[in-house]
Every structure is written in C-alpha cells, then in structure tokens.
Amino acid sequence: GIGIREVLLTSGCPGTEAKCIVRVEECRGPVDCGWGIPISEGLACVKMPCIYIPPENRFKYVWKVLIPNKTAHILPNDSAIMEVCRDTHSITFQCETQENGNIIASVKYTVYATTETETKKSRRIETGQSRRITTDAILVFVLLTGVIVTVGAIFAMILMILHWAVVKSIWESKSGQDNQDKKLANKSSLRNME
User: Fold this and answer.
1) What is the rounded distance in angstroms from the CA atom of residue 172 to the CA atom of residue 161?
2) Would you give the DSSP letter of residue 57?
3) What is the C-alpha separation between 72 and 178, in angstroms, rounded?
4) Helices 114-162, 164-193: crossing angle, 10 deg rounding
5) Residues 63 and 82: beta-carbon distance below 8 Å
6) What is the mean pLDDT of the chain?
7) Got the DSSP string for 120-174?
8) pLDDT tens digits, residue range 106-139?
9) pTM, to two decimals
10) Chain segment 178-194, per-residue pLDDT in tens
11) Kind of pairing, strands 2-9 and 20-28?
C-alpha cells in the first residue's frame, strides 16, 4: 500500500522536546492491504475509500465486484470513494489504486445484505440488554446491602444512646473487673517475692 511516514529526530530538537518531526514523506508497502473499514456504514448504504494519499487525483482507481470462482466485474466508478447501497445478498468489492499503470495498493470490502445487518443489529441489542440487566441487578444488590448495613449501624447507635446507663455500667464492670484482676496479680507477685 501507499501511505505517509513521519521522520522523527530524537536529538537536537528545540526546547525540551525529546522527539520532533523533521519531515513527512511518502512510503510504500505490500500491495495487498487486506480488508478495509468503510468510512460510513448505515442500514441502507456504505461508503468505502480506496487507498490513497493527497492529492487523490494523481492516482487511477479501479473498483471491482469480486464473484467467487469467476472473473471480477470492473465497475465504471473511478473515484477514490465509492458509495454502495445494500442489496438482498452480500457483495465483496475491491479497489485497486494505480499509478503509471502499476497497482500500488489494493483493498477489499464486504457490503452485507440488508437482512444480515438487521440480524447483527438485533444480536447487539439483545446482548446489550442482557448485560444491562445483569449490571442493574448487581447495582441493586449492592445498593440494598449498603442501605441495610447503614440502617443497622444507625439502629445500634440509637440503642446505645437510649440505654447509655446500661452500656456504661457494663464497661465499668469490665474495667473494674480488669482492675481487680490486676490488683490480685500484683499482690500475688509481691507475696512470691517475699
């Protein structure tokens, strides 16, 4: 294919830049560019570009319809971009970019039938809805769990405030018991020392 390559400089750039563009140049690679992605794709029509770099009028473009086990049918369209409306069956197109009679790039596109695009769209909607339902269920579960824990904590705090005297006496008895245990331990250790 044909494209544009940026030539970078990694030292001697102005300021504190680590890399800077020195120039932009044309580059060439393998002729077969594989399968392309349309510029725009609607339910009714598809716009497909050939491989080119500006100015696009310097190249010649040959569009073909590829038919399995037959010779390709050359189309009269010679522009860099072709718009095709969907048919009742899928069609494969190929665009060859030529310069001085030589093929320098070739790209293919499949334009799916109207029924196939509707089927794909309905599958996407179904999987999207099932994902959305699962996500919603998880969010509802997390939200409800959070609300229940929060209400429980608030309820426990309210009970502690209302019955503060009981809570205080429990803490005092525990700390009092701890103090008595410490005093007894100290007395026994003093007796052992005598």
Assistant:
1) 16
2) G
3) 96
4) 70
5) yes
6) 78
7) HHHHHHHHHHHHHHHHHHHHHHHHHHHHHHHHHHHHHHHHHHHTHHHHHHHHHHH
8) 889 888 887 655 555 545 555 556 667 778 888 8
9) 0.50
10) 555 555 555 555 555 55
11) antiparallel
The pLDDT of residue 128: 55
117: enclosing H helix or E strand: helix 114-162
| Residue 47 DSSP SS3 | strand
pLDDT in tens, 132-161: 777 888 888 899 999 999 999 999 888 888
The conformation of residue 75, written as its DSSP 8-state character, comes to P
Please report where in the chains the tokens 């037959």 appear, as a residue. Answer: 70
Structure tokens at 8: 């970078």
Read off the tokens for 52: 């080119």
Residues in contact with 38: Cβ distance below 8 Å, sequence separation at least 6, in sequence order:
46, 47, 48, 49, 109
The amino acid present at 87, given as its one-letter code, is D
Q: Judge contact between 60 and 99, C-beta under 8 A.
A: yes
156/150 Cα distance (integer angstroms): 10
Q: 49: which 2 tokens?
A: 């570009």
The CA distance from 61 to 50, in Å, is: 7
